[in-house]
Structures are given as structure tokens and as C-alpha cells.
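Take a careful look at the protein record below. Let me know whether the C-alpha cells fit the sequence:
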Amino acid sequence: MIFEQVKIENLRNIKSLEFTPTPGFNLITGANGVGKTALLEAIHVVVRGRSFRTNLTDSLIQHDQAGFLVYSRVHDGFRNVSLAVQKSLQQPVRMKFANEVIQRISTVAQAIPVQSIQPTIADLVFGSPRIRREWLDWGVFHQEPDFHMATRRWRRSMEQRNAALRQGDANAAVSWDASLGKYGDVVTDYRRSYLEKLQPFLDQALSELSVNLKLDLSLVQGFSGSSLAEDLKRSFTRDLQLRVTQAGPQRADVRLRLRVDKEVLTDASPTLSRGQGKIAAYAMKIAETKMLKIMNKSTLYLIDDIDSELDEHHLVKLIELLMATDAQVIATTTSSPSKFTNLNQLDSATTGVFKLQEDASDLVKLGVNI
């Protein structure tokens, strides 16, 4: 789906703002603190029901206001559809899609794949396993329709088992082993299969971004052996002592290894520079978009400070690669638009450069001939 209009009221420092993005690459310029990131947050909230910066949605409400509203109009390839989110103080998030109240946020999230990218994107390579799990599960969620339900059932089983372990109730804890093992194996199989399918798309993205990087992906499943149920039995005494389930997909990781001379594999994190890690992380994100494109799904990219730690060569390559995926991109920068030397080579009908005014009250379209 393509965003055609966004209206924001009372979100962070944005009192009232209307944005009409192009269907391709949109660059939002402006000084620090004027509200560029808040604009990206608003679009993320209308799709996911929460910010990419915090789970405390009340904190997005502008000071001295009772709530915020984000309204948008999207095009699904056949028709225009309204999408809106409203949040009042100490009230749950209320979302509407095509004028109908949405009970499950996953309904909208499934329809609109949105990739949120921060200046810390290199943490996908250098950071904790949780960051890589979230990246992996985003891709599986949009690739496999049954993954979301399997994940919900696995998490519910684990929560119930952990509750029994905290109470020291061994019989109740064991009663959840079969369900936890079953759905934990399903989640793991989906993850492993997805990484295998993703590898050629990553190879292609890396070759287009950097000729010197070759990265292999593999799943560290989070438990020993071929069956989670068997590992749960082996570790039960320790789980009961620690009052928590140790083994399972919640401890999974994506192992990143570099292919170097003669195809020798070495762990990427201690080997890559920060700049190389950022290129690798972008390639991992773009690989997922390439894979979705095969399924006729388009991705929305929300990229904060897009040129951070990127030289001009890699910035040009990145923009070219993003546009080749047919994604809609909304990116921010504090730099002069003149730094983006290839924008005037893009189609002006699908490319826009905007300046956010200092009071976050207006977006002035500058054009692409800069």
C-alpha cells in the first residue's frame, strides 16, 4: 500500500501538520528538533499502533493536550482506503481501517509492511540477539500467514509454564511442555526455512551495495537437539530452580558469518567496522523487501537520518537500491539536500524533497532539481 496523505494532530511537537508524500522517495529536511522524527513516528503509529521509540504511547501526546490523532489515506492498488489512529490519555489506542474499528493491530501490520530504520541500524549486526530476532520475525510474519498464530500459541504456552515455575508447581509446569514443544518447533522451522529462502536475496543486495562483503545467515535455534520438548525435559530441574524456562525460540539468534578467502567463514561482528556493519544491516533489511516484492507486497521505509555515517558513494547506492525495490521511502536528514546528488536523476513524479518548518506547522516541497 502507498501512503497518499497523512494528517497529524497533537503528537509530540507537531500541533497540526499535513503531508502528501510521493509514491517513491521522500526526503524530509530540517534542523534538529523540528519534528522530523515525530513525523516518522506518527506514520509508524498509524500502522503498528505504537512508536518505534517507545511503548509508552501516552508519551507521544503533546503537552497540555488530551490526546493525538493521525489520519492517513492509502492506496491498495485498487482503491483509496482510510487508516487512522487515536490515543487519549490513559485510554487504549483506537484504530480504524477502511472506517471500521480494528480489534487486532496485526490486521493492519500484515497489510502494510513497514521497515523502521534508525541511525543505530548497525546494532542489527553488533547488538543483542533480540534485535536480530525482531528483524527475523518481521520477515517471517510477512512471508508466512500462519507464523503469527504459531508464535502467539508458543508465547502463551511459555507464559503459562513460567507462571507455574514461579509458583514452584512442577506438575502444572510439565503440563505445558507438549504445547510449548510443539509450537516452539513450528516457530523454529518457520525461522530456519525463511533464512534459507532469504540468503540469495541478501547476496544480491550486498553485491549491489558493497563488492567486498559476503554474509552467510544461519539460525541459532535457542535449544539443543531436534526437538524442544526433549530439551525441556532435560532442563526441567534447572528450570524449576531458576523459576523460568531456559530453552526455546526466545533465546534464538541469527548467526552472521563473513565469507572470506576460499570461502572460510568467520563471525561478522568482531570483524566488520562500524561502517561495514551499517552496510550489512541495510542489505539485510533490503533483502527482506526484495523477497516481499516477489509476493507483490510493497514495503514502506521510515528512515531517520538516512545519511548518518554513510559516505556519498554508499548513500547514492542505497537510494538506488531502495528505489529498485518499488518501496515507498520517507527519510529524514539534517544535511543540505545538495548532498543527495542522485535525486535529480529520479522520476520527479515519484520523488519529493520537503523542508519541515521550525514550528512543525508546514512541509514545503522543494522539488528534486537541487
User: Anything to note?
Assistant: The domain at 1-113+298-370 is CATH 3.40.50.300 (Rossmann fold). The chain has two domains: 1-113+298-370, 123-295. The longest strand covers residues 2-11. The chain has a mean pLDDT of 93.
